[in-house]
Amino acid sequence: MHLHSISSVSAVPMQQSVVPYGSPLFTKSTKFNDLPDNVKKTFEDIEAHVQGRVQISKDLKQRKVGEEATKGQDLIRSVHKDLINSITVLQNDVLTTRDLKAKVDQSVQDTIVAVHTIDGFRNPQQHGTHLRNHANFPLEFFTRITDQMRKRLQSYKETIEQVERKLTSAAQQVQHTPHGISATLEAQNASFIALANKTAALDADLQKLKALYTQLWRAKTGSMRDPFNQLDHGSGGEFGGVESLYGGK
């Protein structure tokens, strides 16, 4: 009896150790109203947090945040393109400014030499050294101007050839879309306008050149005739061209 009672008593703790400590707060069958207040409060806070995030998601969707990001990306690309175009324009302006400065410097130098030459013709005794120092100026001046005009004419010729190739290519195409025809006409119009502007500038430079030569020729010969007018050319030797400025030298 004693051993049996001892074994019975010792078996009780072993059976109690198998049972998990404490009971669960709720199970699948537990109703919300049956939960403790603190557990209810926790669930309500979680639900409120989830609903708040859902509402924020709906608000962001209505505001079309994704489209704003896409628009921003397109705007950045447009600004980058404008920046590249601006840099290209500035580089072209720098080259144009340098070329213009070189032309202005050359024009100033030519004007100074021309004034000295005219002074030498008007007063050989006082300014005769100018005639000796700049004896080759007219030839050098007209040679340089001729080379510049030759380069311009070559540029105009290349422009015309490009237009001709464009027209030939357009004529050989089987199908012509309205957009292609419009683009071709716009390119041709721009080319012809540029060519007309360059031709007008070339004519203006030529007129200035003729006026300067006429001034030098009249200062040398004392005649008021026009050296470029064929009707004024007589049988005399006063129309001797550039050489006549230096007495046939």
TrEMBL record:
Domain of life, source organism: Eukaryota
Coiled coil region boundaries: 146-173
Keyword Protein transport: yes
Alphabetical list of InterPro entries matching this protein: NUP58/p45/49 (IPR024882)
Record bears the keyword Transport: yes
GO CC term (a single one): nuclear pore
Record GO terms (molecular function): nuclear localization sequence binding; structural constituent of nuclear pore
Name assigned to this protein: Uncharacterized protein
Annotated organism of origin: Multifurca ochricompacta
